[in-house]
Inverse folding.
């Protein structure tokens, strides 16, 4: 397998999911991982960070046409890099753009695409992916019958490799000027209004459910998130009641997250919520109902009222912060 | 006495019937349009395809798309759920010698069968009543059968359009000319989101409504053309689970009695079914007539209770629940059938107009037969170039075994309104005499007009243990439902309403769609809905609300139900 990693970024930062995939790919290739970095130049800063996280070689395309997050020119670019460099596998961390690019490439190359993978390993030299099926209730192995192979990984399933200082090795590439690809223009780009870190990238998430008791009580989650340096999430039920914006919804029909710490406040832990956060490293739950399903998959469960526990917790954390 | 019917949903008369609104050039033009990729609609598509292949000239005349099937589910079969033991006769007629029923993906012929009358601790085996005998019938997953039929329909030239909801019936100059499909990508308040896609007018020479139980446009058409039969339609609600089991089940089991109560005043008609699906799977379901009165009755929780019965629990222990789903069944029978099954440009088939035999627990072979007959009438109409031949569909249906079967059992379901024991006796007399012993005309009352009562029934429902018994929300998950949350509500219910009506909906809904708020100063409570939980079973429409199609692609994604 000769893999290529698609490095998505927002202009200022690499997507953490893509950095994780980079780290994973490095384990297969003795550190000799190649990656594609595309966008409006200059991309030197991003290239340096990618190198520190394991990209041994990068194909960098700096082009204004790559500024808007459209798939077509990226498909053209990756197709060329694959052909020139003999790469037979492309690895993506799932996002709207990455999924578009992967799907487009699959069509272009007639390549097999496995999506929503949570792991990858080599078996007799052949890559075998793992994915959850039947609503995340079973794990299945998936492979490829032919090359090239394309893989979309669930966001945030791999940790970033520990950064090491090294010089980026880059090779400038140009985007083939195929006509239809250049016809797409982005008319408008409106980021959803959200404060603080987005839940997709946050290392700490404090999420609230209907046990909080009202929109105004989400202030508790926000205070705790602020002192922990995290983001605020919400269950579908809470979003449905209009207590918190839909962008914060975690679960089956919202975002899937895997922070280092997940604090669930007043969340019963219905399976629809569980599938969106069960890969969190440490799960802490506070709920008045000792029978709530959330306690079945929490590392630390507190049976009690969030309204009395959280303010004390915030005070304690602030006090400790002050001491440090 | 509180009745849900006194709190009608906010629906305006004629709301779902309209003239085409798209400019003629923007309309999608098809020859015959079928609404619903279930056994009726797909049988219709398959038969119409067969007829077209024998008549290339007519096929040519019907243009680019001679035959289209719209389906609101994610794919054909996504919204199909049934027992399902199928009488194979209609499949044999539909496919002739081209396909053997034994070769259709399913679980083979019915092995032995048993009928138990249950008490809380005991199960008494009783002789299988003649209508429930299933010798020669086949066990299928209806969802799987639907997918297979859709492939056959496509092979025959039908264009199947999934994720497409038919929201309005297009009527022009007194004739049905097609349907309007639903918008996609609206927010909860109706606002157009970034991925907004406007619906379209699909116009057709003949429109076949094969929407299944609680058909949205079927109801609108019955109202618009004044086709309602002498009796109001009534429904049963079925909730079922598919299990992977440690030991194969060697027989088909039906139960009567517990956990339903026999006293006439509760009006709890129903029973359970447990069918093997090969050696590794079984399906277990609970069916309850929606003429019940107790506001705390929950078919989902009755099924959970049933699974703990000492005779049933061992069948499941060591196994694992794979899937769950719910659906209503039209139970009004012969007297609730529409006066006609057609109107200019329109044909009605399957469960929509109520072609279901409750005593035999069968309707799939009627759906297939009615779909086949509808295709033949539609073909005659497109060949003639006018709607006149559509009337032949009524004649064909009345001459078919479907009609004869339903006539024979015409009063059986009504008898159970008198309580379980009297009902069973009357039913026995009627079925043994093949309908010659009538029971006198027993008029039915609409399900929503039954006065409500409350008996602390919920106290006996078991707590969910996540292994043998499950709560509603995890069950909705097991239905594969991952409906987009931020779409407009497709459910219409009155709010605020008396506490009893709100509690009826809360408990009845197997998918935890409804919650009751606090009582206001007038004693009425607000009803909150979470429409994205909805598995579109249709119970709410029987008990005082109105179900309309959600955005195409929403709802459950059944696989093995």
């Amino acid at each position: 397998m000769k893999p290529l990693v698609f490095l998505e970024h927002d202009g200022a930062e690499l997507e953490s999911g893509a950095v994780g995939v980079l780290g994973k790919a490095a384990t297969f290739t003795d550190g000799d991982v190649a990656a594609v970095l595309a966008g409006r130049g200059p991309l030197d800063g991003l290239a340096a960070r990618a190198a520190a996280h394991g990209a041994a070689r990068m194909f960098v395309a700096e082009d204004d046409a790559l500024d808007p997050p459209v798939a077509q020119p990226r498909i053209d670019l990756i197709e060329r890099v694959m052909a020139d460099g003999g790469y037979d596998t492309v690895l993506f961390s799932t996002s709207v753009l990455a999924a578009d690019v992967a799907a487009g490439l699959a069509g272009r190359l007639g390549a097999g695409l496995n999506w929503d993978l949570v792991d990858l390993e080599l078996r007799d030299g052949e890559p075998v992916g793992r994915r959850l099926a039947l609503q995340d209730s079973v794990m299945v192995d998936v492979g490829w019958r032919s090359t090239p192979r394309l893989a979309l990984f669930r966001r945030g399933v791999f940790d970033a490799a520990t950064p090491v200082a090294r010089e980026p090795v880059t090779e400038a590439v140009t985007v083939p000027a195929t006509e239809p690809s250049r016809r797409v223009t982005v008319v408008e780009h409106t980021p959803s209004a959200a404060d603080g870190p987005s839940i997709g990238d946050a290392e700490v998430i404090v999420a609230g459910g209907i046990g909080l008791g009202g929109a105004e009580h989400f202030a508790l989650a926000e205070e705790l998130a602020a002192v922990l340096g995290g983001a605020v999430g919400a269950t579908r039920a809470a979003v449905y009641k209009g207590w918190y914006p839909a962008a914060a919804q975690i679960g089956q029909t919202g975002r899937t997250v895997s922070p280092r710490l997940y604090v669930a406040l007043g969340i019963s832990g219905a399976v629809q919520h569980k599938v969106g956060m069960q890969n969190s490293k440490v799960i802490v739950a506070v709920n008045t109902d000792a029978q709530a399903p959330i306690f079945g998959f929490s590392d630390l469960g507190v049976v009690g009222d969030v309204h009395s526990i959280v303010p004390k917790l915030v005070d304690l954390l602030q006090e400790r912060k002050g001491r440090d | 006495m509180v009745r849900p019917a006194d709190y009608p949903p906010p629906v305006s008369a004629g709301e779902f019937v309209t003239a085409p609104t798209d400019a003629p050039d923007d309309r999608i033009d098809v020859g015959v349009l079928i609404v619903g990729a279930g056994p009726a609609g797909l049988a219709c598509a398959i038969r119409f395809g067969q007829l077209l292949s024998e008549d290339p000239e007519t096929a040519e005349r019907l243009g680019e798309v001679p035959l289209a099937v719209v389906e609101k589910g994610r794919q054909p079969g996504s919204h199909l759920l049934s027992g399902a033991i199928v009488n194979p006769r209609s499949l044999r007629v539909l496919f002739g010698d081209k396909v053997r029923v034994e070769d259709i993906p399913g679980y083979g012929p019915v092995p032995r069968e048993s009928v138990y009358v249950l008490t809380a601790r005991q199960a008494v085996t009783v002789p299988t009543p003649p209508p429930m005998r299933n010798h020669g019938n086949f066990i299928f997953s209806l969802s799987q059968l639907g997918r297979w039929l859709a492939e056959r329909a496509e092979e025959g030239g039908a264009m199947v359009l999934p994720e497409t909801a038919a929201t309005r019936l297009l009527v022009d100059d007194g004739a049905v000319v097609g349907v309007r499909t639903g918008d996609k990508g609206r927010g909860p308040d109706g606002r157009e989101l970034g991925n907004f896609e406007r619906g379209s007018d699909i116009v057709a020479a003949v429109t076949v409504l094969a929407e299944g139980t609680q058909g949205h446009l079927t109801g609108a058409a019955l109202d618009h053309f004044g086709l309602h039969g002498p009796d109001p339609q009534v429904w049963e609600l079925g909730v079922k689970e598919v299990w992977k089991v440690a030991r194969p089940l060697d027989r088909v089991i039906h139960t009567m009695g517990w956990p339903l109560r026999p006293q006439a005043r509760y009006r709890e008609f129903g029973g359970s079914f447990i069918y093997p699906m090969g050696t590794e799977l079984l399906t277990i379901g609970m069916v309850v007539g929606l003429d019940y009165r107790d506001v705390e009755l929950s078919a989902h929780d009755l099924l959970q209770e049933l699974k703990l019965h000492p005779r049933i629990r061992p069948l499941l222990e060591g196994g694992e629940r794979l899937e769950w789903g719910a659906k209503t069944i039209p139970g009004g029978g012969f007297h609730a059938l529409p006066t006609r099954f057609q109107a200019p440009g329109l044909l009605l088939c399957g469960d929509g107009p109520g072609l279901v035999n409750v005593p035999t627990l069968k309707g799939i072979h009627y759906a297939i037969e009615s779909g086949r007959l509808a295709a033949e009438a539609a073909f005659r109409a497109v060949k003639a170039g006018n709607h006149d031949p559509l009337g032949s569909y009524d004649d064909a249906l009345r001459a078919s075994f479907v009609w004869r079967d339903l006539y024979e059992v015409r009063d059986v379901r009504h008898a159970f309104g008198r309580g379980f024991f009297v009902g069973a006796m009357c039913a026995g007399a009627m079925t043994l005499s093949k309908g010659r012993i009538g029971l006198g005309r027993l008029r039915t009352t609409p399900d929503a007009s039954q006065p409500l009562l409350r008996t602390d029934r919920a106290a006996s429902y078991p707590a969910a243990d996540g292994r043998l018994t499950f709560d509603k929300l995890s069950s909705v998950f097991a239905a594969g439902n991952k409906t987009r949350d931020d779409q407009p509500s497709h459910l219409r219910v009155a709010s605020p309403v008396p506490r009893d009506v709100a509690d009826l909906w809360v408990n009845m809904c197997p998918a935890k769609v409804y919650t009751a708020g606090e009582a206001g100063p007038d004693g009425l409570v607000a009803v909150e809905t979470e429409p994205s939980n909805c598995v579109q079973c249709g119970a709410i429409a029987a008990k005082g609300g109105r179900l309309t199609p959600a955005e195409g692609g929403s709802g459950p994604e059944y696989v093995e139900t």
Remarks:
- The mean pLDDT of chain B is 93.
- Chain B is about 25% helix and 25% strand.
- The first strand of chain B starts at residue 17 and ends at 18.
- The interface with chain A takes residues 322, 463, 466, 473-474, 476-478, 480, 482-486, 530, 532 of chain B (CB under 8 Å).
